[in-house]
Design goal:
By secondary structure, this protein is mainly alpha-helical. 74% of the residues lie in helices and 0% in strands. The mean pLDDT is 91.
Length: 169
């Protein structure tokens, strides 16, 4: 008999945690919302773009903090989520090694994304008028914005890759 999902169990049916599954959903949703936000700029809806970016930034900050607290403090690390029962581990030490490599690749983007995104948001907050409209900072903001989009796409792709190799395969 299957038990109801708890914070220790994921809701996708794999042996992941609730927060890991929640982050997968966030990774799947963030890219379309980012692209919608970019479309808002093209349609000259700068306030919508600003509000979507602030909403995404705050939401991701809260999700990442909750995820890290859950992973590190509740579970004691991702390897303990993968091998919930230490007496009968799902994956051996040898099987975990390539997953560590995927995680390291993911962390390059997962760490750079909030730094780049925060820089983009803070500079925009300081250098654009309120209400937002094109300004001398627009060229720099566009470059930082596209770098942020590419970085979050890479974070999403590598995060989903990690989830796949760690929990689905």
């Amino acid at each position: 008999m299957k038990t109801a999902p708890t914070m220790k169990n994921g809701f996708f049916g794999y042996d992941a945690s609730f927060m890991l599954d929640f982050v997968v959903v966030a990774l799947l949703l963030i890219v379309p919302v980012q692209l919608y936000s970019v479309r808002a700029v093209k349609r000259r809806k700068w306030m919508l773009h600003r509000n979507l970016q602030l909403l995404l930034g705050i939401t991701l900050l809260v999700a990442v903090v909750a995820f890290e607290v859950d992973t590190q403090f509740v579970h004691g690390g991702w390897e303990k989520i993968v091998n919930k029962n230490p007496d009968v581990p799902r994956l051996t030490v040898e099987q975990l090694q390539p997953i560590r490599t995927v995680l390291r690749i993911h962390l390059i983007f997962a760490i750079s994304t909030p730094v780049l995104w925060a820089t983009t948001l803070i500079l925009a907050w300081r250098r654009f008028p309120n209400p937002p409209q094109p300004a001398p900072h627009s060229g720099t903001h566009k470059t930082l914005g596209w770098l942020s989009v590419l970085d979050i796409v890479a974070t999403s792709v590598t995060g989903l890759w990690f989830y796949y190799v760690a929990f689905m395969r």
